[in-house]
Design brief:
single chain; mainly alpha; 14 helices; about 80% helix
C-alpha cells in the first residue's frame, strides 16, 4: 500500500483529532452521562410543572406571550450561532441537547432551588438591604455557571470524539446559556404577571420582553460561552490547547461579568453611575468575548487548513480561498476584494465549507458526495 502524502496524512490527522463528521447518538443506555442528563431534564421538567402548575391557568396570557415573544427572540440568536458554528461544525442534535440542558436542567433543576436557598441565607447574614444590593451577584455566578457547565461535561461524556476543542466549548456553551436565558426570561414574564396580580398580562409580557431582550445581548449566552471555553482550556482535550491558567482566569472572568451584571445597583451605589454602568460593562464583556472567540478558534482554523490542504495541491482551492474559509473576517474581506464580487466570494467560501464537511464525513475517503461538492466548488469558481 502506498503511504499517504504529507498533505493527506495531515488531513486524516485533522479529521481524527477534531471528530468532525462523527454522528451524535443521544440514546446511550450503557453510558452514565446519559442517565445523569435524563435525571437533570426530568428533575427540571418536574420543577417547571410544580412552579407553573398551581396558578398557571390564570396566568396563561402572560405565559403564552412570553413563550411566543422569546420564541421569536430565538431566531436571530440561532442564525448568529449558526454563522459561528462554521469551522468543524457541531451536529444540530448535540446543540439541541445543550440548549435543553440549559433551559430545563440548569435553570429549574439546579439554579431555581439553589438560588432560592442561598438568597435566604444572604438575607439572614447581611440583612435585607445587603441582600438587595449583593445577594444575586454572590449567588448566581456560582450556581448558574457551574450548573450550565455541567451540561458541557455531560455532552463530553455523550460525545467524546465530537467535543474536543475550546471552540467547541464556546459554541456549546453559547447554546446552553441561550437555553437558560430564554427559559429564565419566560419565568421573569410569569413572575411579573404574578406581582401585578394578573393585570394587563400581555402588556407585562411585552415590557419584560423589551427589558430582558435588550439585556440578553450580554447575558447568559455570553457568560456560558466564555465560561465553557475556559473549562475546555482547563480540561485540555486537545493537547496543544491545554492551558490551566488561561482556562481558570477565563472562567473567573465570566463569573465576574455575571456578578457585575446582577449587582449593578450595589456597584453603582444607586447614583448617577447607574445610567452609564450597563453600557460600560457591556462594552468590556463584548471586547473580552471577541478576544476569547478569536483565541478559541485557532485550533479549529488549523484543522480546516489541514483538512483542505490536499485540495489546494490539486488546485480545487487556491491559497486565497483557503485563507478565507479558515481565516478571520479580515481574510474573508480580502477575498471579496480580490474577486470584486461579494456574491461570488460568499458562494465560493460556502462551497469550500461544504467540501470540507463532506470530506470529514467521508473520513478523508473519495465518495460521490465528496466529488459532487468538489465539482460544485469548481463550478462556483469558474
Amino acid at each position: 500500500m502506498t503511504a499517504p502524502s504529507e498533505g493527506k496524512a495531515a488531513q486524516l490527522a485533522a479529521i481524527e483529532q477534531s471528530g468532525w463528521g462523527q454522528p451524535f447518538r443521544f440514546v446511550q443506555p450503557h453510558n452514565l452521562a446519559f442517565w445523569v442528563y435524563l435525571l437533570g431534564i426530568g428533575g427540571g421538567t418536574l420543577s417547571m410543572v410544580r412552579y407553573f402548575g398551581a396558578d398557571g391557568g390564570f396566568y396563561t396570557p402572560a405565559l403564552a406571550g412570553g413563550v411566543l415573544l422569546f420564541g421569536l427572540y430565538l431566531v436571530p440568536w440561532l442564525l448568529l450561532l449558526r454563522h459561528h458554528n462554521r469551522y468543524t461544525a457541531q451536529p444540530a442534535g448535540l446543540l439541541a441537547a445543550g440548549f435543553a440542558w440549559g433551559g430545563i436542567a440548569a435553570a429549574f433543576w439546579i439554579a431555581l432551588p439553589a438560588n432560592t436557598a442561598l438568597l435566604e441565607i444572604w438575607t439572614k447574614l447581611g440583612g435585607t438591604a445587603f441582600a438587595a444590593d449583593w445577594a444575586a451577584g454572590l449567588t448566581a455566578p456560582v450556581n448558574e455557571e457551574w450548573g450550565k457547565a455541567l451540561g458541557l461535561v455531560l455532552l463530553i461524556g455523550l460525545a467524546p470524539r465530537l467535543v474536543r476543542s475550546a471552540y467547541d466549548g464556546f459554541i456549546i456553551g453559547a447554546f446552553i446559556g441561550l437555553g437558560f436565558q430564554v427559559f429564565e426570561d419566560v419565568l421573569y414574564v410569569y413572575n411579573g404577571a404574578v406581582q401585578s396580580f394578573g393585570v394587563d398580562q400581555v402588556g407585562t409580557s411585552l415590557q419584560m420582553f423589551l427589558i430582558r431582550g435588550a439585556a440578553g445581548i450580554v447575558s447568559h449566552a455570553l457568560f456560558s460561552a466564555v465560561f465553557c471555553t475556559g473549562l475546555m482550556w482547563v480540561l485540555g482535550r486537545t493537547r496543544s490547547e491545554r492551558n490551566v491558567v488561561l482556562g481558570v482566569s477565563t472562567m473567573l472572568t465570566a463569573m465576574v461579568f455575571h456578578f457585575a451584571w446582577d449587582d449593578m445597583t450595589g456597584i453603582s451605589g444607586g447614583g448617577s453611575l447607574a445610567a452609564v454602568l450597563p453600557f460600560a460593562i457591556a462594552a468590556v464583556e463584548l471586547t473580552v468575548l471577541f478576544a476569547v472567540l478569536r483565541r478559541a478558534a485557532r485550533q479549529e482554523r488549523a484543522w480546516i487548513r489541514r483538512l483542505l490542504g490536499p485540495e489546494v495541491e490539486t488546485s480545487v482551492l487556491d491559497p486565497a480561498l483557503l485563507d478565507a474559509v479558515s481565516g478571520l473576517r479580515k481574510d474573508r474581506k480580502a477575498y471579496r476584494k480580490r474577486l470584486h464580487s461579494r456574491r461570488k466570494a460568499r458562494h465560493s467560501i460556502e462551497g469550500a465549507g461544504d467540501l470540507a464537511r463532506e470530506i470529514a464525513r467521508a473520513g478523508g475517503q473519495e465518495t460521490e458526495r465528496v466529488e459532487h461538492a468538489r465539482s460544485e466548488l469548481r463550478r462556483l469558481r469558474a
